[in-house]
Amino acid sequence: KKGKKQKAQTVALTEFLASNGGVPTIPIKSTSWADDVEDEY
Question: Cα torsion for 17, 21, 23, 24, to the nearest 10°?
C-alpha cells in the first residue's frame, strides 16, 4: 500500500507542477522523469 501511495503522490506532484506551469511538459508515464528535467535545465 505504501508503494501505491508514493506513486500517487509522485504523479500528483508532477501534475501539480505542470498545472502551475513552473515545469515544462514532462512525460508522467516516463519512469525516470527526473532525468528529463535535469536534461532540460
Answer: 130
